[in-house]
Design goal:
Strand content: under 5%
Number of helices: 10
Largest sheet: none
Mean pLDDT: 85
Radius of gyration: 26 Å
Number of strands: 0
Structural class: mainly alpha
Helix content: over 70%
Shape: elongated
Order of helices and strands: HHHHHHHHHH
Length: about 400
């Protein structure tokens, strides 16, 4: 029977996914809560999209506010797209979560395996800590800054986090307070939906790469080259039985990576497609935007958090490629040639060759099937974002000159 997860990083990731409305529900009460969270998520995201679009429509003659709202629109749109794709693949995603619970997080590890697992947990705890800090800081700035700006102002001068256009007297009590609370809830929920899925993918990738490292360690200890029994038939039979278990684990990891690819491939594609443009708009606001210093700092923190999230995501995908290919190198390094030439010994030699051959094709996640994602992808996207920013800065300066 599985034990309860005690790792804080996994618990925090679970919490973010529960808030977005896509998580395992074992009872009717939990299913109702999940349905409420799902409906609330889509209502909030659609409301945020409506606020951004209407403000952009009324800001076509104001290039500064247009670019400011365009950055918010891209952020809301990608959060809505990620959430929609997640719920469209809900069944496969929940089966994947159930598999990771049973085989990755609740498995009974020996002392050597616990070293790898604890290392992966410490690594992801650092990632989730930074993610949470940025996710809380940026929405808080959107909410707290208008509160300070509104102090001492009369009703006609009060400001919402985002402008709203309506025939109702939105800047009078109680409409102003209602709209302020709704926008505050919307901002925090958009931040959660923006990071939760990518954050969970990093978690899964980290622990999957950890499983590959544990497999490599088992292959290294498959046989002892200094053993006096290494050329005996019984020793070859024992190695053959152990190797069968390792091959089954290798096949299970390969199938698991294929499931990851089927679920997250298009999400990754949408993310890398929008990242450069969104970062470009955020850089413009941070460096050239006509906004207050506090809002400028908020955009700087957001850019740093986005780059950090991108590097962690691409690095975790790259670790799958590296560790899956290392399995073949480790299999080649063991002293399998010293085994007896009985039936088990010949089978071990053949199976090791198959492991080496299969490992030459790495397990990888792609962006919509177009290209594999690795750490090099982050450098290309950041370079593209800087190029877009340079082009946008020149275009905006030409507009101001004319």
């Amino acid at each position: 029977m599985s034990t309860k997860i005690k790792d804080i990083s996994i618990s925090l990731s679970d919490f973010l996914m529960k808030v977005s409305g896509c998580w395992l529900a074992t009872t009717d009460r939990e299913q109702k809560r999940r349905m409420i969270a799902r409906n609330y998520t889509f209502i909030v995201l659609l409301f945020g999209l409506y606020v951004d679009v209407t403000d952009i429509y009324h800001s076509l003659d104001d290039i500064s506010n247009l670019l400011y709202m365009a950055a918010n629109l891209f952020l809301t749109s990608i959060a809505l797209l990620k959430t929609t794709l997640l719920h469209l693949n809900k069944k496969r995603f929940l089966n994947l979560v159930l598999y990771t619970r049973r085989n990755f997080w609740h498995s009974n590890y020996d002392d050597n395996e616990k070293v790898f697992v604890n290392e992966a947990r410490r690594y992801f705890t650092f990632i989730i800590t930074v993610t949470y800090c940025v996710m809380v800081y940026v929405p808080c700035n959107y909410v707290i800054i208008p509160m300070f700006e509104n102090s001492g102002r009369n009703h006609s001068e009060r400001a919402l986090p985002f402008r709203m256009w309506s025939d109702l007297p939105l800047y009078e009590t109680p409409y102003f307070e209602i709209c302020f609370v709704l926008q505050a809830l919307c901002v925090f929920h958009i931040g959660i939906c923006y990071v939760c899925l990518d954050n969970y993918l990093v978690l899964i990738n980290t622990h999957t790469a950890c499983q590959f490292r544990m497999l490599q360690d088992k292959l290294l200890n498959l046989l002892d080259p200094n053993s006096k029994m290494i050329d005996s038939p019984d020793y070859a039979d024992q190695c053959y039985q152990n190797l069968r278990r390792y091959i089954r684990k290798h096949q299970a990891l390969i199938n698991f990576c294929n499931r990851l690819e089927n679920i997250f491939s298009f999400n990754i594609f949408c993310y890398v497609l929008v990242f450069s443009v969104l970062t470009c708009l955020s850089m413009y606001q941070a460096l050239l935007g006509e906004i207050s210093t506090i809002r400028r700092v908020s955009f700087v923190v957001y850019i740093g958090g986005s780059v950090f999230q991108l590097m962690m995501l691409t690095s975790s995908c790259g670790s799958l490629i590296t560790e899956s290919m290392n399995v073949g190198a480790v299999a080649y390094a063991i002293s399998w040639a010293a085994l007896s030439m009985n039936k088990s010994g010949r089978t071990v030699r053949r199976d090791v060759q198959m492991i080496i051959t299969r490992s030459q094709k790495p397990c990888q996640l792609t962006a919509g099937g177009f290209f594999p994602v690795s750490l090099q992808t982050s450098t290309k996207l950041i370079s593209s974002a800087v190029s877009y920013f340079t082009l946008l800065r020149e275009s905006s300066s030409n507009v101001h000159d004319t």
